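Sequence design from tokenized structure. All designs in this work follow the same two-part layout: the structure record, then the generated sequence. An example of the structure record is given first.
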């Protein structure tokens, strides 16, 4: 029995959901979310979901709590409407940083959210470039973890003319694996910034491991939030002799002073995928890397019971 494939969108990133649906050749499903005067949310599907393979697209972007609860309600409503299977498509999983108990009396929020998504009724999860890959282990349901490295590598390959004069730079030791995947695809050398923690909230660059002098530094990271770390990374590689700096990240969250910092920073360009809705209008230095077709291919493979990992071989 060929079950109908249906894609629905929460309010966080409807443009990405439309791109996914268009790439799949299916109409974006009809649903409605309303907030009442008492701040309660109301979610309703406006078409039949019975025995359908349902994919709910929702990034956990600000306001994160609203978008999270809307996702939970959409999952619950789909299960209550007799959907055969419900997959939570979470292009940006913001709580992935809260993956361990590194202070007393705190919540491991990433595990809590995994429990909430399962309790709401999700049968599986599809996401991209978790800040902490170990969050995968918090889910007892299947989770497919897409990688933005291929998209980033393809962007650099077409954007940087003198690519042979470039070096891939990780912003810290924790990002080496991610950056090295891009470096390997482009056959480029790798460098990383070694940081020292000064206080609980202050981290400074201590040294740079690798050679950047006279080269084009291509900074790779998982996300840009306030852009503080990105700007410091750019200043560090320039101090060590890089001649110009580009950056590419999986998630462009761009909160607080991020845009202003990037506009003032010694960075030629910052590219991010559209897992988070890009600023509108888009500032001159920012570029958007579409990932709707990649998510669509992964969804099609899930729907057909085929391998998702083969996308990255």
């Amino acid at each position: 029995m060929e079950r109908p494939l249906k894609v629905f969108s929460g309010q966080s990133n409807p443009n990405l959901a439309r791109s996914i649906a268009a790439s799949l050749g299916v109409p974006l499903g009809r649903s409605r979310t309303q907030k009442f005067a008492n701040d309660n949310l109301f979610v309703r599907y406006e078409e039949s979901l019975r025995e359908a393979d349902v994919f709910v697209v929702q990034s956990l972007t600000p306001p994160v709590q609203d978008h999270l609860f809307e996702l939970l309600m959409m999952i619950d409503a789909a299960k209550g409407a007799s959907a055969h299977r419900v997959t939570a498509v979470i292009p940006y999983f913001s709580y992935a940083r809260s993956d361990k108990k590194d202070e007393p009396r705190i919540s491991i929020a990433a595990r809590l959210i995994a429990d909430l998504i399962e309790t709401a009724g999700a049968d599986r999860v599809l996401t991209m470039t978790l800040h902490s890959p170990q969050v995968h282990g918090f889910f007892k349901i299947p989770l497919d973890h897409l990688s933005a490295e291929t998209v980033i590598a393809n962007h650099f390959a077409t954007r940087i003319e003198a690519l042979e004069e470039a070096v891939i730079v990780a912003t810290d030791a924790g990002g080496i694996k991610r950056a090295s995947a891009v470096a390997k695809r482009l056959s480029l050398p790798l460098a990383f910034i070694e940081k020292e923690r000064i206080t609980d909230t202050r981290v400074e660059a201590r040294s740079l491991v690798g050679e950047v002098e006279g080269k084009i530094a291509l900074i790779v990271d998982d996300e840009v939030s306030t852009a503080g770390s990105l700007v410091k990374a750019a200043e560090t590689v320039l101090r060590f002799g890089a001649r110009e700096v580009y950056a590419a990240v999986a998630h462009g969250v761009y909160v607080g002073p991020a845009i202003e910092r990037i506009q003032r920073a010694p960075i030629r360009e910052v590219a991010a995928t559209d897992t988070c809705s890009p600023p509108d209008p888009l500032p001159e230095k920012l570029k958007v890397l579409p990932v709707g077709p990649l998510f669509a291919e992964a969804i099609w493979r899930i729907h057909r019971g085929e391998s998702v990992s083969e996308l990255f071989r």
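Residues 149-289 form a domain with the Rossmann fold fold (CATH 3.40.50.2020). We note this feature because it recurs in several other targets discussed in the main text.
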